[in-house]
Amino acid sequence: MNNWYKLDNAAKIFPSVTSDKRTNVFRLSVVLTEEVEPKLLEEALNITIIRFPPMKVKMKRGLFWYYLEENFAKAKVYPESPHICQRLKRKENNGYLFKVSYHSTRINLEVFHSLTDGSGALEFLKAVVYNYLILTGKKIDSENLVLTSDIENVYEEYQDSFVKNYKPSLKNNKRDPKAMQFRGSFYDDLYLSIVTGEVSVKALKEVAHKFSATITEFLTACLICSAKDLNHLFRSKDKPLQIFIPVNLRKYFPSRTLRNFSLFISAGMKLQEDLEFEAVLEVVKAVFQSELQKEKLQERIVANVMIEKNFFLRIVPLVIKELVLKIGYSAWGDKLNTMTFSNIGVVKIPKGMEPYVRKFIFTNGASKTSPINIGGISYRDRMQITFVGAIRERDLQREFFRMLANFGIEVIVETNELEV
Amino acid sequence: MKKCVKCNVLHNTTRKSCPLCFEILQDVDGQNYQGPEYPKPTPIPEKYNVLLRIVAFLSIIAIFTSVLINILTYKNTRTVWSIIVVLGVLYFWVLLRSTFKAKSNVPMRLVIQMVTLSIHVIGIDLVTGVSRWSLSWSINYVIPFLSMASLLAIISMFLGKVRSSEYLLYLLAAAILGLIPFVLWLFDLVIVLWPSLAAASLSFATIVGMIVFADKETKEELKKRFHI
């Protein structure tokens, strides 16, 4: 009999609001020291996937909800496409909702957000790379930092941790305000630009500590400040610039889940030309301090799960549900943030793997309403800050990296083809 | 490694100008670009199916023309014959999009065929019937046989090599649809009993078969599809 899962709380919205222009796909890449061998990579992928039942699925339509069902087809690897984070269609790619591709020494994992969040995807990518390196004949001790196939997979790994932390008593209906939106000239063919800035974690930490802030707080403040003079990039300027920062809830609530378990906090302020960096940072720090508390986060979880538990919503057929979600999302949900800054944090891999792995890169997707997003990931002493852009304008990227340079941080920029 | 003096930022690139501010880059350490580079984008050719567009255009014009002529000559003919044209064109599109082109599975296409063809013959029957707006041959003969045919087709697929629990759902749907003519007979809408009874018996046998042979799978499939 086939195994099947309901979509987790965060995943439920994505299939209904996904289109070619809003793909809800993000990408994690790893750059190795040696050229990637596609055949071995495919073999490694198919070995790894057995250990990750929540990834070994295809999506199906039910009468009331979508659901995930075990997928028995072979997972394939593809040469990397210049068009990143494209929509993963249900009926293509053997039904899998992730796509592994390679180019030269790079391996990319693109994941549809209904499957898992950044942390879950990173666990999966680490395991794929580990198995790949083993297949190429390397001897590596996993140091229990990788989910290898000999570690038992437990039910907690495919649990919906949102529902698990649902306590109806913690109700709080706080609504986020609408945010300022980007405008610009969009690339053709849904092309996305990548601008990655590599910085030293140590240098970044030193500067951030000077302001007694964490790296994420510091970078968030930098993002807001670098946008302050870019009037031509925004419309609805009376609204605040809001940055969504996904929070990995596994750090706050005990959970082993490999599915979605993160939610956004929102930091931002109205832009003025005379904004001081210190003042912005204070606002950001205050938001982080008040929002990143267990009770506050749980209140948000409860609010989200409560929607799902609504009886009337549940018995509405999926066709109508989708229509309502689509309209509601574009009218309201899509306008709450100007951009998203997602910092995955430090990647820990076994010592034996390190000589073969040069860097990790995390690339967010982008959409018509959120055309510029930022992803951060650190490995050893190097942090990769990646801007993904659906629009040709890259003033924000320029101002941001100039600002880091002004703080005395050395930045090495790499891009894909930008003049398309 | 190259450097942009204006941005004060290093660039690992083969570009001549700074990607952020377009200032000409300066070489700093003589080291070449360290890959891996990103694959070069090529424009995606636009999909433009001329034939499909011509057929779509002709379909709309055909519907428009026949409805128009029907309205203008209604006084003389007293029949709404354009319904046949409209249903014919719509059925043709279902055939084109669902039956020949879709990636969905065969039982589902059979069920769709069964439903759309039934609607089609009901339409023709309504317009051409002896006494106006009454159904005769369509629900008495065509629809029962149609449902039996598609049900038998799905069953034979099931007995063959394909044995996916997903197909159970369409088998069930086809079986339930096959009961409809008999139910209509109970309400005196169907006059000739034997085709409807045959279809209903086949449906009944199918449902019993599903309960006896695949109770677990059917239950599980229904649970998946209908979970709230």
What topology does this entry show?
The complex is a heterodimer of chains A (420) and B (228).
Chain A: E1 4-6, E2 25-32, H1 38-51, E3 57-61, E4 66-70, E5 77-79, E6 98-103, E7 106-112, H2 118-135, H3 161-164, E8 181-182, E9 193-200, H4 201-210, H5 215-226, E10 234-235, E11 241-248, E12 262-269, H6 277-291, H7 294-309, H8 311-315, H9 318-331, E13 339-347, E14 357-363, E15 372-379, E16 382-389, H10 395-406, E17 412-415
Parallel strand pairs in A: 5-6, 11-13, 13-15
Antiparallel strand pairs in A: 1-4, 2-7, 2-14, 3-4, 6-7, 8-10, 9-16, 9-17, 11-12, 15-16
Helix pairs in contact in A: 1-2, 5-6, 5-10
Chain B: E1 2-4, E2 9-11, E3 26-27, H1 50-72, H2 74-77, H3 82-101, H4 106-128, H5 137-159, H6 165-186, H7 193-213, H8 215-226
Antiparallel strand pairs in B: 1-2, 1-3
Helix pairs in contact in B: 1-3, 3-4, 4-5, 4-6, 5-6, 5-7, 6-7, 6-8
Order of helices and strands of chain A: EEHEEEEEHHEEHHEEEHHHHEEEEHE
Q: How would a textbook summarize the main sheet of chain B?
A: 3 strands, antiparallel
Count of discrete structural domains of chain A: 2
Mean pLDDT of chain B equals: 87
* Biggest sheet statistics of chain A: 7 strands, mixed
How would you sum up this structure, described in words?
The complex is a heterodimer of chains A (420) and B (228). In chain A, helix 1 crosses helix 2 (118-135), helix 5 (215-226) crosses helix 6 (277-291) and helix 5 (215-226) crosses helix 10. In chain A, 29% of the residues lie in helices and 24% in strands. The longest helix of chain A has 18 residues, at 118-135. Chain A has helices spanning 38-51, 118-135, 161-164, 201-210, 215-226, 277-291, 294-309, 311-315, 318-331, 395-406, and strands at residues 4-6, 25-32, 57-61, 66-70, 77-79, 98-103, 106-112, 181-182, 193-200, 234-235, 241-248, 262-269, 339-347, 357-363, 372-379, 382-389, 412-415. Chain A is α+β, with helices and mostly antiparallel strands. Chain A has a seven-stranded mixed beta sheet with strand order 12-11-13-15-16-9-17, with helices on both faces. With 228 residues, chain B is mainly α. Chain B has two domains: 1-38, no CATH class; 85-226. Chain B is built from eight helices and three strands; from the N terminus they run E-E-E-H-H-H-H-H-H-H-H. In chain B, strand 1 and strand 2 form a beta hairpin. The longest helix of chain B is centred in the first third of the chain and has 23 residues, at 50-72. The A-B interface holds A 1-2, 4, 6, 31, 60, 62-65, 67, 69, 79-83, 91, 103-106, 188-189, 191, 194-195, 197-198, 314-315, 394, 397-398, 401-402, 405-406, 410-418, 420 and B 1, 7-13, 15, 19-21, 35-44, 103, 165, 216-217, 220, 224-228. Strand 17 (412-415) of chain A pairs parallel with strand 2 (9-11) of chain B, so a sheet runs across the interface.
